[in-house]
Amino acid sequence: MTKTFAELKFPGRLIAVEGLDGSGKSTQIYLLKRWLELQGLKVFFSEWNSSELVKSATSKGKKMTLLTPTTFSLIHATDFADRYERKLVPLLRAGYIVLCDRYVFTAYARDVVRGCPPQWVRGIYNYAALPDLTFFFKTPLEVSLQRILDGRPQLKYFEAGMDMGYSADIYESFRIFQGKLLDQYLAMSTEFNFRVMDASQPIEAQQSIVRDLVAAQIKLSDYAFAQAQ
Prior knowledge:
- The protein is of the alpha/beta class.
- The chain has a single domain (24-220), classed as 3-Layer(aba) Sandwich (Rossmann fold).
- It has helices at residues 25-38, 55-63, 69-93, 104-113, 118-124, 141-151, 170-191, 203-217, and strands at residues 13-19, 43-47, 97-101, 133-138, 195-198.
- It has a five-stranded parallel sheet, sandwiched between helices.
- Helix 1 (25-38) packs across helix 8 (203-217) and helix 4 (104-113) packs across helix 7.
- The radius of gyration is 18 Å and the shape is globular.
- The model has no long low-confidence stretch (mean pLDDT 89).
């Protein structure tokens, strides 16, 4: 699919955020969600790998390190398809602003870095319309790493790409794996018209830019709940 939801004449609009682990994208989309809600707008939030249909299977597979790159890819594709058909599309048809913490671009980056053929990965998601607005939060690897470690004592096995065998040192593996993801995202940024954000800037400054861009592209008053007469 090469068209956005607006181009497909959906009444709703979809906004996605992408970025490396520790980029601050989740914080930014949460702040955007609260801002939109406080204006009385119809808003729905969805995050990557959150479908109840496959969440437990993914968790179990990760703990037992049973997932090959292809299995990883297909499980995430199943998760996305379930959320897309059961939640995202119905709410977009109902005139909601849908906010996604990661969209298909996460698969395009991660699955390819893990060795899946790019065209195969994209083919799995070819039914999905493009977001109406996609923010990419670009941050230096060391900043991402420090933000993660500030929040918890250690890196996770898969976020550090330890399954890829880049390095026995988890921090070095993180730098290599996340660096390869960054290359994939930057290569996609022009193709998919990402709004590239400097994620090393203060949270408030980033959020101000995000809100301005959203308000400039989407007529927010169209998404208010109907007022009682």
